[in-house]
Design goal:
The protein has 471 residues and is of the alpha+beta class. Helices cover 62% and strands 10% of the residues. The protein has a four-stranded antiparallel β-sheet, with no helix packed on it. The longest helix is centred in the middle third of the chain and has 67 residues.
């Protein structure tokens, strides 16, 4: 005798459950640890680092610029819109966890030569996919994690923007300082030209000395003009970062670079995993890829859905709700032959997960490298500043001595000119080195910085924390 059909279906479903559990058990383990961390960074200070790290410079003008940029920068606002899109996508996907309910109302008239018949209908229909293997739940969690990754990306953009504002502002202030220094040097060179022309008129200098000094004056004037151009470009760049057209609004008029703050406490490399938004983003994308893989595996097995409906039909609208017809149906859809499509999707999802894991590990390595690079650059710039101070002191002393000897006729003017140019070059280099030292500190703050709460997301909290993700 043949076995009843219901018994055969029951055993087939039981076999599918066993196969499914075996398939889920073969999924890659996503709890792979990040790269081995060193015990600590090469240098550290005692000053705690704030989320609003730019305030460490005690520059009120910089503070106002960063606040404006976090409110008005167009790229940051576009990033926030991407975050809203990701959240909406997650909400759409989450709708699959709940039944759908649709209502319908209809009216129909049928006429012949002798009669006219009206009919009215109303109904409710509901459908629901029973999430046997967790496919819908996995897809929902994947989109939620991608939305959380978008939020981390938004915070990473805010950190990057604050760093760009600080660097551009320091470059602008440095160029304004260069302009002030160039104008002072131009005045010095003019005064020296007047002295040499007087000596030439008295027969104490030759015409070549006058020509060389005039050339230096002309070169100094050209430097002032070039610096004006650089200032204009930096002001335009700063305006664009603030979300406004160049020249649309006034910019701060600072001309002095701030003092370098105390070295912040760098902590240990493992802290970066919990703090940096780009690492948080990379980890949440790993988790999302893991959920996608789970959904791809679940998609290889049967889907069971329930459909229910109630309808009423009458020839008179007043009788419409007197009689109801209810139906309930269950559908089991089982893939049999798909040419390997679902298996290929599982393979693809496994590769995506492995890619995300490798990207996450690389992001952690890059974060550690950025901290160490900033520490090395700052240490090198400090040493350079000390060397420049010594060189400037010696150059000033050498110029004074040679100038006095020239006035006494003991040396040629070319020696005085070389000493003067060396001194002025070193003064300009010192100003640039100070700005580069501040930029190195900005790079260190950016490498250590956590999420910045900007006006767009004030009061909001991330939907996933690194502590929960990695638990």
């Amino acid at each position: 005798m043949h076995k009843p059909f219901a018994t055969v279906c029951t055993r087939a479903i039981a076999l599918l459950v066993v196969v499914t559990l075996a398939g889920c058990a073969s999924r890659p383990d996503t709890a792979k640890v990040p790269p081995d961390f060193p015990a600590g960074f090469s240098r550290t200070g005692q000053q705690p680092i704030s989320k609003l790290w730019w305030q460490s410079f005690n520059d009120s003008q910089l503070n106002r610029l960063v606040s404006r940029a976090l409110e008005d920068n167009l790229s940051l606002r576009a990033s926030y819109q991407r975050l809203l899109q990701a959240r909406a996508t997650a909400t759409q996907q989450a709708a699959g966890l709940f039944p759908s309910l649709d209502a319908s109302l209809g009216a129909e008239r049928e006429e012949t030569d002798t009669t006219r018949t009206d009919s009215f209908s109303a109904g409710l229909s509901a459908s629901y996919e029973v999430d046997l293997w967790g496919r819908v739940q996995s897809l929902t969690e994947a989109e939620e994690l991608r939305a959380s990754a978008s939020q981390a990306d938004y915070h990473a953009v805010a950190v990057s923007l604050s760093g760009e504002i600080a660097n551009t502002w320091f470059q602008l202030v440095e160029q304004r300082g260069q302009r002030q220094l160039a104008q002072s040097q131009l005045e010095t060179n003019h005064n020296l030209l007047t002295l040499i022309e007087a000596r030439f008129a008295a027969g104490q200098s030759d015409s070549a000395d006058v020509l060389r000094q005039r050339q230096l004056v002309s070169s100094s004037q050209e430097r002032v003009n070039n610096i004006e151009g650089e200032i204009g470009v930096l002001e335009n760049q700063l305006s664009a970062l603030l979300g406004q057209s160049p020249g649309q609004g006034p910019l701060p008029d600072g001309e002095r670079l701030p003092e370098l703050p105390l070295l912040p406490e760098t902590g240990v490399p493992a802290d970066l995993v919990q703090r940096r938004p780009d690492i948080q983003q990379a980890w949440r994308l790993v988790r999302a890829a893991d959920k996608d893989l789970a959904a791809a595996i679940s998609n290889r097995f049967p889907r069971f859905s329930l459909d229910a409906s109630v309808t009423s039909r009458a020839e008179d609208a007043s009788d419409l709700f007197d009689n109801w017809l209810a139906t309930l149906a269950g559908n089991l859809m089982m893939p049999l032959i798909d040419g390997g499509q679902r298996r290929a999707e599982v393979t693809r999802s496994e590769a995506v997960l492995e890619e995300r894991l490798l990207e996450y590990r690389q992001t952690v390595l890059t974060a550690i490298q950025e901290v160490e690079d900033a520490l090395v650059q700052e240490r090198q710039q400090r040493q350079r500043m000390d060397s420049l101070e010594q060189q400037i002191g010696m150059a000033q002393a050498s110029y004074r001595q040679l100038r006095n000897r020239y006035l006494n006729g003991a040396v040629s003017y070319i020696e005085v000119l070389n000493a003067l140019q060396d001194q002025q070059d070193l003064q300009r280099t010192r100003l640039t080195a100070r700005q580069q030292l501040l930029n190195a500190r900005v790079a260190l703050y950016r490498a250590l910085a956590g999420s910045i709460e900007s006006p767009e997301d004030a009061g909001e909290r991330p939907t996933h924390s690194m502590e929960n993700d990695q638990a």
